[in-house]
Amino acid sequence: MQTLLRSAALTTTHLRFRVRAHTLLELDTHSGASLRGSFFYAIMDQFCTNKSAPSCSVCVLNATCPVSAIAAPMREDNSWGHDIPRPYVITPPLEGARRYQPGDGFSFEMTLLGGIVKLLPYIMLSIQQFEREGLGLRLDEHRGQRGQIRVERVEAFHPFTNEQQTIYEAGNMRVQAPVITIQPEDYKRRAEQLNRRRMTLRFVTPLRLIDQDHLVQQARFRPLIRRLLERYQALEQHYGNAEIAFSKEERDAIAHLADGVRCVADNTCWQELRSYSNRQKRTTPTSGLMGEATFEGDLEPFLELLALGELIHVGKNVVKGNGWYQIQS
């Protein structure tokens, strides 16, 4: 079988924001939703010139607005926001629920997908607004306000080699263009280093998969591959090679191959979580599997896809940081 990532063009650019608490700050267990909301509402506050529009899709400036590709999904309830995958992924701090005292530092990461990296200047120019918006839970000590932060440095980095490049430092408004962008050759090279018969995946943030309208609450290879393949295809079509598509026959053949890979050690657990949506004014489930699972079988057809999955995440709520896994062996 040919590699699943034939003619791949999707690139990823990985940014690490190093932040310091200016006042008392409290983050919940998985703070990706809070980070996503604070940062992208800061972008809209900074650059939206038609805030009276109920959504980006009906705004008369939509076609020419340079940030609608990033901010629009935050405001949409229709199929536009559902069908087009967001062009970014947030990876929250991994310390879990924690109070940060003034002066404490932490970091979070943002992955920009494909050509959306051209909008990086808008993201960087929103940092001061992001700092003013505050972050985390509203605290009694702050009279119901969020904690204040300062972004000290932003680095572009290579997830596979740990190479890094500082592109922003506090006090210096000059932003360097990132020269570290992951190309298809990088995740294909990563795949060549992997074991073709046995692999352990560590689910660092909750993995929430839906298979045949049911939540997947045990480690299973087939639904993981199906959802990852769907995500890869959607991202390629919108941010990489628009010509890439898998026929129903190809998807069925891939699923059949995935059935031959068994989970031989399932050390995962289901973590119940919910996050609050300011847009929907209600909490939504972000629960998922966490821990490690070991798979055995013919993994070779899936290695490149799995290597890419480390970068783009998989499943529900990936923009909030869910669905991040690491290949252990």
From TrEMBL:
Domain annotation CRISPR-associated protein Cas6 C-terminal: ranges: 201-325
A Pfam cross-reference name: CRISPR_Cas6
Gene3D superfamilies given in the database record: 3.30.70.1900
Protein name, as recorded: CRISPR-associated protein Cas6 C-terminal domain-containing protein
The organism of origin for this protein: Ktedonospora formicarum
Species classification: Bacteria, Bacillati, Chloroflexota, Ktedonobacteria, Ktedonobacterales
